[in-house]
Amino acid sequence: MADQRRTPGSQTSLREANRGRIVDAVKKHGGLTQVELAGATGLSPATVSNIVKELSESGVLSTSKSMRSGRRAQYVTLAHASGLVCGIHFSQRHLRVALADATLTVVSEHEMPLARDHRSDNEIRRVGMLLSDMLDTVSAERDELLAVGVAVSAPMDAASGMVARPGILRGWEGIAIADAVERALRVPVLVDNSSNLSAFAEHRLGALRGQDDAMFLEVSDGIGAGIIMGGRGYRGASGSAGEFGHMVIVENGPLCRCGNLGCLEAIAGGDAILGSLKNRYPGLKLGDVIVRAMAGDDACIRAIADAGTHIGVAAANVASMFDPIRMVVGGHLARAGELLLGPIRQVVDRSLASRLAPAPEIVAGQLGPRAALMGALGIAADRSSTFPVVSVSPDLRTALG
Amino acid sequence: MSVAAVDGPGGADPLDRVPVLSMRGISKSFGKVQALTDIHLDIFPGEVVAIVGDNGAGKSTLVKILAGVHPADAGEIEFERAPVAIPDPTASRALGIATVFQDLALCDNLDVVANLFLGREITRTALDEEEMEREAWALLRQLSARIPSVRVPIAALSGGQRQTVAIARSLIGDPRVVILDEPTAALGVAQTAEVLNLIERLRERGHGVVLISHNMADVQAVADRIVVLRLGRNNGDFLAADVGYEDIIAAITGATEHARPMPEPVYPAPRRIGPVA
């Protein structure tokens, strides 16, 4: 707080900074009373009151009457006149949920760790309760929620809407995810693979803006890819294209959790990295490996570099197949930055060195671990703006998904 | 009958990890009731250990021994390899063991800062409110806590926020081990999410965390190691990565016996495959 309070310069810049501070505080907490805002920002109640009034007139914030400790209070939230959309990302060990308005400004967001092999019914119920909570904090009604986008960290089959490959997200196999979520939340639901949605989000908001032939590589516990061809996502015949992590790079190599031998994921995925460090550091998590590697631990740097080299081999193959102009690396392990990107780039450059065109750029994603979540919000927002009427037949939904 | 921790039967840790806290052969009885019998427990820094078990399995008694509420009848406690005694709560605190009890023990009428520094106020000539407020914010920010203001009375906060304040309070004085007794039992979904994230933060900060919970989903989401107690005895010490929900339930209910030390499975070194270059 100490350095946040230091605001040099003129009256105008001070006022501008105070406005920013108030909007930031409201964003962070979802909704606050004016008194709480004064506490959270360190501004005087009079300043808060003035700025809130000004910002609600210009349509940035909205206020409603509320009670706190038995007193009347002004409850301040971000304005969301055009309705809300919700994005949900279920990955192997993590859940993220966000509410945003039609312009994809996130008004409330939650994340939490999940158990390995968590069960879909539990988590869908949990999201339902979480969503009611979140709608409350931004003082929105249930009917303001227009659509929900769900990102699932497993390949999806377009025809059935189920996870297309067993062993990857075990608690979610054999259920039609869109229908199950729709039954629980009672709003139209769109489901897609998290890498596809990350690619979509990076294409719209992040590092792939303006690049119409590009790829997104997700490197987390699992490995996946989203392919952008001609400015649109490429999904393949059955909808599960982009299974980058399950490309076989070593014939008869180690057993992958998908049941195959020698998949990239079994060699360079999160579990493989932890496995290679098991004798030296038991009980690490992927996040710890990254932190240690950044602090200069040679074994962890080496493990990440090895993974990068293997990913580079696969990326080079894919690059000569699809000829993307840029490959964005995202996901949990991308936090390691150049420790991961360097080896990938090196292998890709070397493999494509004899080409006339330069090898694709390998860059880090801009949206970080939230890429898939933003993508889920994106498809939900697109869905609600294209079809303002809520009832859409299921086959049309599949066609869109 | 003894149960060694995951470091193997020899006692010497082949990996040179030093447990920050270890309990050896702890027993405790209340009159004729034998609450704990020959309990072994190791806690390593930067590790979340979940203690699970049925009602009356002895989880809370174990925690109370660590917190200094009850002294143990028999057995040894080592803190960073040095034998220690924990006769009272002050001794526990002084060692660097912080306990957050189920009822949180916060003062509802005092504000967040006053609660955080209760009994440990920073004083110069008078109370240094500004310094305390600054430290309170610093601490809450490190925990990514969503507290709107540190000057509101505790009564005005939600359950999750209160739990956050209670946990933050336990961190003042930089303890080595933080013990959380049923931190999510009375919380809603959003607050549970906050507390689970908080446990991950504690782990990242290098604290040893002991988590007692009945909720298997929460336990499996954050724990590195799961210690099962049954009828006051150890009944299994699992690496969370290696066990499923059913294995733990089986150990809790006594369907499987894990009273003998479980040998560490010896994994062959993974085959490294070089780049195809």
UniProtKB/TrEMBL annotation, chain A:
<dbReference type="InterPro" id="IPR001387">
    <property type="entry name" value="Cro/C1-type_HTH"/>
</dbReference>
<comment type="similarity">
    <text>Belongs to the ROK (NagC/XylR) family.</text>
</comment>
<feature type="domain" description="HTH cro/C1-type">
    <location>
        <begin position="22"/>
        <end position="51"/>
    </location>
</feature>
<protein>
    <submittedName>
        <fullName>ROK family transcriptional regulator</fullName>
    </submittedName>
</protein>
<dbReference type="InterPro" id="IPR049874">
    <property type="entry name" value="ROK_cs"/>
</dbReference>
<dbReference type="InterPro" id="IPR011991">
    <property type="entry name" value="ArsR-like_HTH"/>
</dbReference>
<dbReference type="InterPro" id="IPR036388">
    <property type="entry name" value="WH-like_DNA-bd_sf"/>
</dbReference>
<dbReference type="InterPro" id="IPR036390">
    <property type="entry name" value="WH_DNA-bd_sf"/>
</dbReference>
<dbReference type="Pfam" id="PF00480">
    <property type="entry name" value="ROK"/>
</dbReference>
<dbReference type="Pfam" id="PF13412">
    <property type="entry name" value="HTH_24"/>
</dbReference>
<dbReference type="InterPro" id="IPR000600">
    <property type="entry name" value="ROK"/>
</dbReference>
<dbReference type="InterPro" id="IPR043129">
    <property type="entry name" value="ATPase_NBD"/>
</dbReference>
